[in-house]
Design a protein that fits this description.
The complex is a heterodimer of chains A (about 120) and B (about 110). Chain A has about 120 residues and is mainly β. Chain A has no helices and 11 strands. In chain A, strand 5 and strand 6 form a beta hairpin. Chain A is globular. Chain A starts with a strand and ends with a strand. Chain B has about 110 residues and is mainly beta. Helices cover about 0% and strands about 55% of the residues of chain B. Classes of the chains: A mainly beta (about 120), B mainly beta (about 110). Chains A and B meet through strand 4, strand 5, strand 9 and strand 10 of A and strand 5, strand 6, strand 10 and strand 11 of B.
Chain lengths: ~120, ~110
C-alpha cells in the first residue's frame, strides 16, 4: 500500500521530555514537510526539506528539530524548548520537482498531548 | 504580507442545499490556489487546484471553484451537499517565492439532515 505513514497516531508526553514523530513515504517524492495544526488556526509550516541532507526552517521552527538522512524518512523531534507542543502534526510530501505548482500529499497525522 | 482568509469559520447547511465556502488571498506575485478537505482526525485530501487557464476548476466529489483575480478570491461551491460532505475545508496557496503552502484557518461545513 503506497503513501505516507505517520506514527504513532496518538502520543502523550510529560513536560520536559523530547519526543520524535515519525514520517515515512514510499512515493519517491523529493520534498517533505511538517505542519502543525491548532484549532481555528489552520496549518503552520514547521520545517521542510527539498532533498536528502538538506532542510529549511518554516514559520514556527523554534523548539523543533528535523533530519533528512534518507529520501523516505523525515522525522520531527519536539524538544522541551517548545512551550506549547500539544497539537496535531501533519507530514506532507510534494510530487514532481517540488515546484510551487505541484500537489502536496498529506499523511494521517499524529496527535501529541503534553500532560 | 501574503495570506489567505477564509471568511466563515463554520457553515451550517441542510442536505441537498447548495453551498459556497469563501476564500480570499493576498499576494504580491502570481499564486497557485488549492482547496483541501479534512475529515475528523485525518490528514488533508486535495479537492481541486488552480494553476492557470480556465478560471472555473472542477474537483472531486462534485466540488468546483472559481478563480477571480480582480477580487483575489477562490470560492468553493457545490450545488447539492450530502451528509458525507461534513468536514473541515482549507484554502491554500503557493507561489514561486515559497516552496510550501500557506493555509487559511479553515471552514467547518456541517450538513444537517
Amino acid at each position: 500500500d503506497g503513501g505516507i505513514t505517520q506514527s504513532p497516531k496518538y502520543l502523550f508526553r510529560k513536560e520536559g521530555q523530547n519526543v520524535t514523530l515519525s514520517c515515512e513515504q514510499n512515493l519517491n517524492h523529493d520534498a517533505m514537510y511538517w505542519y502543525r495544526q491548532d484549532p481555528g488556526q489552520g496549518l503552520r509550516l514547521i520545517y521542510y526539506s527539498q532533498i536528502v541532507n538538506d532542510f529549511q526552517k518554516g514559520d514556527i521552527a523554534e523548539g523543533y528539530s528535523v533530519s533528512r538522512e534518507k529520501k523516505e524518512s523525515f522525522p520531527l523531534t519536539v524538544t522541551s524548548a517548545q512551550k506549547n507542543p500539544t497539537a496535531f502534526y501533519l507530514c506532507a510530501t510534494r510530487a514532481g520537482s517540488g515546484s510551487s505548482t505541484d500537489t502536496q500529499y498529506f499523511g494521517p497525522g499524529t496527535r501529541l498531548t503534553v500532560l | 504580507a501574503q495570506s489567505v482568509t477564509q471568511l466563515d469559520s463554520q457553515v451550517p447547511v441542510f442536505e441537498e442545499a447548495p453551498v459556497e465556502l469563501r476564500c480570499n488571498y493576498s499576494s504580491s506575485v502570481s499564486v497557485y490556489l488549492f482547496w483541501y478537505v479534512q475529515y475528523p482526525n485525518q490528514g488533508l485530501q486535495l479537492l481541486l487546484k488552480y494553476l492557470s487557464g480556465s478560471t472555473l476548476v472542477k474537483g472531486i466529489n462534485g466540488f468546483e471553484a472559481e478563480f477571480n483575480k480582480s477580487q483575489t478570491s477562490f470560492h468553493l461551491r457545490k450545488p447539492s451537499v450530502h451528509i458525507s460532505d461534513t468536514a473541515e475545508y482549507f484554502c491554500a496557496f503557493s507561489n514561486t517565492g515559497r516552496r510550501a503552502l500557506t493555509f487559511g484557518s479553515g471552514t467547518r461545513l456541517q450538513v444537517q439532515p
